[in-house]
Amino acid sequence: MVDSKHPETLAVHAGYRNDPTTGSVAVPLYQTTSFQFNDTQHAENLFALKELGNIYTRIMNPTNDALEQRLSAIEGGAAALSLASGQSASSYTVLNLCRSGDNFVSSNNLYGGTWNLFANTLKDLGIEVRYADAADPESFREATDDRTRCYYAETLPNPKLNVFPIREVADIGRELGVPLIVDNTAAPSICRPLDHGAAVVMYSTTKYLTGNGTSIGGIMIDGGNFDWEANKERFPTLNEPDPSYHGAVWTEAAKPLGPIAYILRARVVLLRDLGACMSPFNAFQTIQGLETMPLRMERHCENGEKVAKYLSQHGKISHAIHPSLQDGEMRRRADAYLSGGYGALVGFELKGGKEAGMKFIDSLKMLYHVANIGDARSLAIHPASTTHSQLSPEEQVQTGVTPGYVRLAIGIEHIDDILADLEQALEAA
Questions:
Q1: Going by C-beta distance under 8 Å and a sequence separation of 6 or more, which residues neighbour residue 240?
Q2: HSE on the CB side for 9, CA within 13 Å?
Q3: For residue 394, what pLDDT is reported?
Q4: Is the separation of the CB atoms in 286 and 215 below 8 Å?
Q5: Angle 69-53-277 from CA coordinates, rounded to 5°
Q6: Kind of pairing, strands 317-321 and 148-154?
Q7: Distance from C-alpha of 380 to C-alpha of 30, rounded to nearest angstrom
Q8: Which of the four, 36, 201, 264, 320, has the lowest number of CB atoms within 10 Å?
Q9: What CATH number was assigned to the domain covering residues 15-289?
């Protein structure tokens, strides 16, 4: 295996070298539901977790495994689990630790869909989310009690685009025995949250990792750096016998396999029972995109910064939002946690409010109006009427969405063409 710490190299080589049967250097697509056991003993060993291997694609597949190993290597993690979507990854990261009656503390700066998942769907399951102020790390400590199972945050949350204080909150969590889960969807290759104390990283692979807008998926990565046994009472899902798996205690069951108790349980319990697996075809497509992701991110970030500068000086815009435009504590965090660029998400507020914002969107000719980020192509959306429309007006304001706010996800096109389309749309607005 190639020995490297560079994401450009790992994205091409990590987790797979060649197919042992054919010699193929491209990861094969194993489009199958089931796998032949060598014999009955082999089957028994797999089901008893005496060894890891392929049983059924819902649980594990060689194509998915290559993707999981590759992303785990890029992030510096111990193991990963590919899933059907970013939303399933957000759900599983929390459900792997929380039961009815438990709580977790989340940053108040979240993608609207995640906010709704936490505030409503998980609430219906008896799991309480407590929102903390991302601007004040100590607010996480204040919201923590004996039933707090984890902290949750986004590295670069849209729409505010204020980089989360990963180290500060992670350190508070480790002092109290609470792991930090970080959604790094908007900042692949420019941030490695595990290096800053996070215990778990997740992605919507739909976005930058794939980059081509073809395949929905998610992934969760276990850092292998959190001691789940040090505070056994805080993590009953990992430290108490699991009646759904012959009384297995996951911290004990994982020891022969490595520091992967968290991801092991997610795979053999949550994925087994809830079934939100990534299809092998989508894993295959994601691998193709992942190979060029670090290089694409360079252009994404370069273009994003130029667009932000242009918008900040435009007469029809009251303010533009991008880490490169920030100062003070927010800029310090951006410089501390982002390396090689400030991301490709850019927000701005038109002086004409909602009507002007929607007119701008309708006037775009090259930028696509879609509910996504991270494509190679540039994208635009009006969050208040789309991605954040299910939130109340008060919740929208709390997440940073205002009536005239527009979010751009800047692609890898030539910067002159991007700016030209923005200019004509702004003129029309």
A1: 249
A2: 6
A3: 77
A4: yes
A5: 65
A6: unpaired
A7: 35
A8: 36
A9: 3.40.640.10
Where in the chain are the domains? 15-289, 294-428
166-176 helix and 328-337 helix, angle to the nearest 10 degrees = 80
Residue 112: pLDDT band by 50, 70, 90 thresholds?
confident
How many helices and strands, by DSSP H and E, does the chain display?
18, 12
Nearest-10 Cα torsion for 190, 160, 213, 270: 80
Task: Fold for 294-428, please state it.
Answer: Aspartate Aminotransferase, domain 1 (3.90.1150)
Under DSSP, is residue 372 helix (H, G, I), strand (E, B) or coil?
Answer: coil
- pLDDT, tens digit, 9 for 90 and up, residues 121-137: 999 999 999 999 999 99
Q: How many residues does the chain have?
A: 429
CA–CA distance, 136 with 198 (Å, rounded to integer): 17
Tell me the backbone φ, ψ of residue 418, rounded to 5 degrees.
-65, -50
pLDDT 10s digits, 26-40: 999 999 999 999 999
Q: Which long-range contacts (CB under 8 A, 24 or more apart) does 313-317 make?
A: 314/426, 316/350, 316/351, 316/352, 316/356, 316/426, 316/429, 317/348, 317/349, 317/350, 317/351, 317/426
